[in-house]
Amino acid sequence: MKRFTTVSDPQVTTLLRSGAIGVIRTDTLYGIVCLADDEQAVDRIYQLKDRSEHKSPIVLIASTEQLYDDPSAETLNHLDALWPGPVSIILPSQQAPKWLRRENDSIAYRLPAPDELQKLISRTGRLIAPSANPEAHVPAMSIDEAYDYFGDSVDFYVDEGLVEDDRPSKLIRINQDGSIERLR
Fold first, then answer.
1. Residues 125, 117: Cα–Cα separation, whole Å
2. Under a CB-based contact definition with an 8 Å cutoff, are residues 106 and 92 in contact?
3. Which tens digit of pLDDT belongs to each residue from 134-164?
4. How far apart are CA 133 and CA 140, in angstroms?
5. Considering the entire predicted model, what is its pTM?
6. 93 CB contacts (<8 Å, ≥6 apart)?
7. For 98, what's the count of Cα atoms within 13 Å in the CB-facing half-sphere?
8. Residue 141 DSSP label
């Protein structure tokens, strides 16, 4: 198990590209992350979190080009108005792999605001990033809390300090007809 102080460390990119899972600070909380397109790594996170097999994960992207499906011009306008930032947006995603969609036809995406996090996602590709806690437990607000949950079962940790604001991202759904619903 390795420990880093920033997501810009080149080893973080190398580890993620090799199929590793890690805990990093997102633009909201600490998340447990891996490549979204790595089915085995995604399954590993689901097992570690004891996450319901029916729930799709949040997918972090660095640009709208990383969406699995091509959004309409109207949807792109909505996304441009809402991102980057702590807003997760559920979009129809028929082209997303089954292991991400689970029993859904949509995916919740987030384009985070921090530059270093966007650069990491640009280098690695899409990342899943559910909160760093087992299902039904309080999200980890520090790397020490995340380590208490996962220990050496996680390949690396990036310690970027204590999370002071524990609010999760806003959650919005953009429907096929272009209508918007705020869910959280």
1. 11
2. yes
3. 999 999 999 999 999 999 999 999 999 999 8
4. 6
5. 0.95
6. 67, 68, 69, 100, 101, 105, 106, 107
7. 0
8. S
For 69, other C-beta atoms within 10 Å of its C-beta total 14
- What 3-state DSSP class applies to 179? coil
Total length of the chain:
184
Amino acid identity of 88? S
* Structural domains of the chain sorted by starting position, each given as residue range(s) with its CATH number in brackets: 2-182 (3.90.870.10)
Between CA 155 and CA 26 the distance in angstroms is: 17
* 3-class SS of residue 114: coil
Which residues does 167 contact at the CB level (< 8 Å), separation at least 6? 28, 86
User: Phi/psi of residue 167, each to 5°?
Assistant: -75, 130
Tens of pLDDT along 77-95? 999 999 999 999 999 899 9
